[in-house]
Amino acid sequence: MINLWQAIQEKKNEFTKSYRLIANYIEKHSREIAFLSIQELSSRIKVSTATIIRFCQEIGLSGYTEFQKEVQELIRKEYNDESYSSDLSNPLEQSMIEVQAERNIRILQEMKADSSQLNESIEEAAKKILAARRIYIMGLQGDFESAYSLHYSLNGFMDNVMLLTLGAGNLEDELKNVNEDDLLLIYSFRVYNAQMLNTINHFIKRNAVVISITDEGSPFSAFSAVSMIPKHETPSYGSVLKVTITRALVLTIKRLLHNEIDSFEEKGGYHDMLMT
Questions:
Q1: Of the candidates 67, 188, 81, 193, which has an alpha carbon nearest to the alpha carbon of residue 137?
Q2: pLDDT digits (tens, 9 = 90+) for 38-59
Q3: CATH entry, 4-82, from 3.30.930.10, 3.30.1330.80, 1.10.357.10, 1.10.10.10
Q4: Rounded Cα distance, 253 and 247, in Å
Q5: Do 33 and 26 meet the contact criterion of CB atoms below 8 Å apart?
Q6: d(CA 133, CA 104)
Q7: Class of domain 106-265
Q8: Which tens digits make up the pLDDT trace of 232-256?
Q9: What global pTM score does this model have?
C-alpha cells in the first residue's frame, strides 16, 4: 500500500498538464472520486480514461481499480485518525465514559444550534415516506444497526416497510419490482460503499424516490431527493447523530399520520364512506 498523497506530491513537479488536472481534482474531491467510475471521472475532469490509467501507473499503482481502493482506504484512515485523536487528547484523569458523554453532548449541541435545514429535511422526508407504496431501508456495515432500528420502529405502525440486507437472499430479486411509487431510504456515514451506490442507481433508473441520512460531503446526497444531514464541528462516528435523527423522523411520521387520521374523521370519516 502506498501513501497516496505523498506519491502525488513527489511527482507533482513532473506532471503533465493533464496529470496536474487529475491531481488537483483528487485533492479537492477525494470522497466523490471513491465511487466514480473511470468514465464518470474522465467526463468531469475532461481527460481521457487512458490518461487517468497512465496517471495511476505514474504514481505506482496498477490502474484505476487499485487507485479507488487507495482513496477509500485513505478516507477511512483519515476519519478514524480524526475521531480517535479527538478522544485521546482529553485529560487522563477523565474516564472514557466522561470523555464520550461530553463529546456526544457537544456534538448534539452543535447539531441543535444549526438544525433548521435538518428539521425541514426530516419533515419533507416523512411526507415522502407516507406517500410511498413501499419503503426500502438500507444501511451497510456500521450503518446497518440504524437501518434495522428504523425498520423495526416503522413496522410497529406501517405494513409496507422492507429492510434490505446483503448476504440474505438475492438483492436483485428483492428489487426487481421497484417502480416510481417506491422509496429507498439509506444510512451512509463516512465509509461509503459501492454496493450502496449500485442500489441507489437501481432506484433512480426506475424513477423511485431516494432519501438519505448521511453526513456533509457524502457523495450520495447528490442522488437524493431529500438528504438529512446533521451540522456539527466535533468529529463524530455518527452513532449519536443517527439515533437522534432516526427518532425525530419516526415521531414526525407518527405526527403526520395522526393528523391525517384526525382530518379524515373530522370530515365524516368511515361513517360517510358507509353512507355513500
A1: 188
A2: 888 898 899 999 999 999 999 8
A3: 1.10.10.10
A4: 10
A5: yes
A6: 36
A7: alpha beta
A8: 887 776 789 999 999 999 999 999 9
A9: 0.68
